[in-house]
Design goal:
single chain; 454 residues; mainly beta; Glucose Permease (Domain IIA); 3 domains; 8-stranded antiparallel β-sheet; 5-stranded mixed β-sheet; 27 strands; 34% strand; disordered N terminus; binds zinc ion
Amino acid sequence: MKIYKLIFWILLGTTNALFSQIKVQQIVSHEEHSETEHAGPTVCLGPAERIAVQERINKAVRDMKNDGLLDRVFPQNQRAMPPLLQWPLRQSDKFNDPGYYAISNYVDLDPTLNNVLDYNGLNQTYDGHNGIDIRVWPYWWKKMDDSHVEVVAAADGIIIFKQDGFNDQSCSFNGNSWNAVFLLHADGSITWYGHLKQNSTTVKDSGDVVTVGEYLGVVGSSGNSTNPHLHLECYDNLGNRVEPFAGPSNPTTANSWWANQLPYYDTGVNKIATHFAAPVTPSCPGIETPNEKDYFLPRDSIFFTASIRHSLTADSARVQAIQPNGVVSTLLNTTYQRTGSFFTRSVQPLWGRKLPNNAMAGKWTFRVTYYSQTYGTSITNHTFWVAQPCTPNLALGGIHNVNNYFQASNSITSNAEINLGVHVVYDAENYTILGGGFIAPTGSKLEIKTTGCN
Ligand SMILES: [Zn+2]
């Protein structure tokens, strides 16, 4: 009996010791973004709707050509060749993330059933796919809700027709109609832009001219779609479907239709961020909650994410938290190397940490240094703050000679002087008063917020 008890206490002690060791080391937790891909019978456009769209395009284009519209709109010297396409997406002017999309699927160039072949001789497509799918990412539903990513004309053109008003919350092959815009270009080639957000399409309509880069709509998930993405489909002036990416397995065009063709593996970092809790992804079509936060207190939990597109296991990322004094913190200083399949369209590793008691107050940097086979080394920085502890009212004076984040649940009054090159944030929930002694010379930075101690 005594021996059993002794063993029990030894075991318990070992477990506790292990547990506290794990806590002390703040072990890395990798939470890979779960993949939601087109699969099985999913197609971006059902057969019946495809026939209807084609008939409508054929008739409208015939009428436009008979009417001489192309001759009137485009000079003769543009009429001989298909235009070089510009990228069909951009961020709305409210956003400036390092990246915001990832190519999901190219055209399936193998006409036989149950076999796929993309332009590069591989399988980044699905059976019978006639276009290019470009997902918006990370947080695709939030991006749609925020109208974050806009679809723009890939070349000068005339709107053949557009359709709008259809539900944009599709999560599966459902036979619904999509919101879409169809453009006719100078030489008679055609581009399709499908799955747009409901009621987002341009005010222009059939017969109106659009210039390259002009707004056509917002990326959504209308029609046969599993998540918000753009379906881009291209045809030459004879009505042949074209895969615009030139490559060894693409018989549809010898030359790229792109002004700047992206690499097949378009590896990069779309966004890095700090969070007070892990991002939440509800079931489709729920809008994601990123739980992002940029200011913390000592002892707060802090989560770091890097949203990586076209991740290859051959690539790697150095992830570091850098203290206000420029020293890399032991809080986060590790290398991310994904395991599993060689290629993933989008992945979001996450690291959970707890800021120590003595975390240095001031402006920190979360830095991701990405080593990619495609693009070489790139560095992405994100600023976060360890703030001064919250008080109701804060009276500041003297000189701010280091970056600092001051927060108050009611007010901040400052007669301080900010030194050159110093960045200071005043965050008082009700009001901030800058007194007569306050000076912020050129070269310093003052931010005033009203979130307070939230
Ligand atoms: Zn598609």
